[in-house]
Amino acid sequence: MSAEGGIGEDSSDHGLRTELARLRGDPDQPADVSVVVPVNAANDLPRALQLLADLAEYRGRHRVEIVLVINNYPADNPPAEIERFRRMGVRVKAIPDARRAGEFIVMSARAEGTRAAQADATIHFDADCKIADVNALIDWYTGVLHQGAGLAYTRTEYYELENAISVKIRIALHYLARWIKRKVLNIPTARGSNFAVSRDLFLRLYDAGQLSVELQLGPAAKLAGAGIAYSRKPELRVFTSGRRFHRGWRKIVRYFAYRLDYNLHAIPTRRHPVLRTTWDGFDLETQRRLDAAQYLQEERASQR
Questions:
Q1: Confidence check: pLDDT of 6 > 70
Q2: Integer Cα distance of 48 and 10 in angstroms
Q3: pLDDT at 125
């Protein structure tokens, strides 16, 4: 790792390149499924490399294409990892600034990756994800989409959590809120770090202005009449970083007050359609998360 936190070329690249080529299979044949991953260049390039290594462990029957959308970097100073990943055989969409008005930046980046994807079956992760069983997960996602589901998702859990009671309670309340939405309110709770969706469905909803943030995907897909699949099987779990959850009782109150207001404004219903022009909270959310990413970057720099 360089002093700037980047990842340089090393001897492991050749082995990973070989495994990724095996994963893709015959390049003259269409991919069965495309994996789309937005990558924040300021913080997540090393994590993206680890995710590629996890995906390269897939030994199933499907041809898998990987699309990385690397964004959030100076246009005149692109990270060297862009070309490094391309040499590995990964499709890279490089965008210095993926922000679009009225959208959360990760949704904008995810849409770019989905347009670039070759397959109609697309699987979506965040760069910091870890996969419990990559063979079981890719086979399940690909299977249910090929059988006609428009959207599918599985349980997402956290790693890198602070060992504090307030953080544990916050996570428990988070899972409770998702259970109530899914089981009581019948609202699909697909989240950005772990879902699969038909490329056609995703782009149809996105181009209609119905996807500004990822929590809208489940409700919008349901309103569109798409089939939706969910599984809690342990082997289908995906883990995402909980490094943004910090200890503090006041943080719990502020977080849930904010999330309640956010959900009420962002989730579409038949009587209350939500478009990217409806509410300025999507732009505020983008700025909030960019500020959080900048804070993490500065915090890591101070610890060196």
A1: no
A2: 16
A3: 97
